[in-house]
Design brief:
seven-stranded parallel sheet; single chain; alpha/beta; about 35% helix
Length: about 350
């Protein structure tokens, strides 16, 4: 694969909001050096598939791929259970409306060759209690995709999940054992197992899993209840209501802006070996801090309305250790919570 350097990125850090990011120059140098090694040239891919491309992260990824690789043929596969056609406004590629758990890849695509398949399709509602549906659809969709891609060793970049780590109290490392607390995270852990085995059996086949942490950003509103905490709190506060959070707001999340997860996903296209990597901000921020950030964005002073947590199994802490993603993918998140939330609010509530 031909590799090239991408120096078009603009590095900005506002002193008022960046905190420990004030020493950003070191990150810039590291990012540029990694870019030399890992970013595919814009002429590299000719045909790409994005499953779940009408969903939240999938639609942002699809539109970013379209902008980055304007000559590539893009195909989105989605059944709209977790997506919406409105997320693909401006999309110029092909679309296959189908349930991936029953899709006959060979029948639909024959011997067509693809440079990569970005697999983001899944049932993402962690409150769905039908274990068979959740696990069957997520795992069998992935198995069918791998069976199609194996003969041609088509590069696979798939969505795993930080939920596989379960209840933790410190930053999660990819080598930590899986401890799924619900059927969704169990299905993702099984996908990781299948991916590791497939990669081990075919050393020349690149399969990259990405454990997305708590993603927020544009094109998530259609998800309803499963949409991010950032979205739901913003809706409440924009309506003049006190933001409702679990007592007493000290739970912490690795909130990561969707633009960063998209960047990391595209960088995975240039990975030199198979692996599973965390994609987060690398910083755990409390629910109270999130409310403060939103108050600053809206120029309000709404105090939290603390409520009891009704969930028996709940991740009170998430944080991504980004060591491996930085070294293998050259991934460097660009949006601390303050910048990501304000950028999102400008998109969500345009002046």
């Amino acid at each position: 694969m031909k590799l090239t350097t991408n120096f078009s990125r603009k590095f900005r850090c506002r002193r008022a909001t960046c905190g420990k990011w004030s020493d950003f120059s070191g990150h810039v140098l590291s990012f540029v050096l990694n870019s030399i090694l890992l970013v595919p040239s814009t002429e590299s891919p000719s045909s790409l598939i994005v499953t779940g491309g009408a969903g939240f992260i999938g639609s942002n990824l699809t539109l970013a791929l379209q902008e980055k690789f304007p000559e590539a043929r893009l195909t989105v596969i989605d059944d709209f259970r977790s997506g919406n056609f409105k997320n693909l406004a401006g999309y110029r590629g092909d679309f296959v409306a189908h349930n991936l758990a029953t899709l006959n890849w060979r029948e639909n695509f024959g011997d067509e060759k693809f440079d990569a398949i970005f697999h983001l399709a899944s049932i993402t509602d962690t409150t769905l209690h039908d274990q068979f549906v959740q696990v069957h659809d997520n795992v069998e969709s992935f198995r069918r995709l791998l069976n199609f891609a194996r003969p041609s060793a088509t590069r696979i970049i798939y969505a795993s999940s930080a939920s596989t780590y379960g209840a933790v109290t410190e930053a999660s490392v990819e080598s930590d054992g899986a401890a799924p607390a619900n059927a969704y995270s169990f299905s993702k852990a099984i996908m990781d197992n299948i991916a590791r085995r497939a990669a081990a059996e075919s050393p020349g086949w690149i399969i990259v899993g990405l454990r997305y942490f708590n993603v927020y950003g544009p094109r998530e509103a259609h998800k309803g209840v499963p949409a991010s905490m950032v979205y739901h709190l913003a809706q409440q506060m924009k309506a003049g209501l006190r933001p409702r959070i679990f007592k007493h707001g000290e739970q912490k999340r690795d909130f990561v802006y969707v633009k960063d997860t998209v960047e990391g996903s595209i960088r995975a296209f240039g990975a030199q070996t198979s692996g599973i990597y965390n994609l987060g901000s690398g910083d755990a921020r409390s629910f109270n801090e999130l409310v403060a950030v939103l108050n600053k964005c809206f120029d309000t002073n709404l105090q939290p309305d603390y409520i009891d947590n009704p969930h028996a199994h709940y991740q009170n802490f998430t944080q991504a250790d980004l060591t491996n993603a930085r070294s293998a993918l050259g991934y460097e998140p660009r949006f601390p919570l303050e910048d990501g939330v304000c950028d999102y609010m400008h998109w969500l509530y345009p002046a």
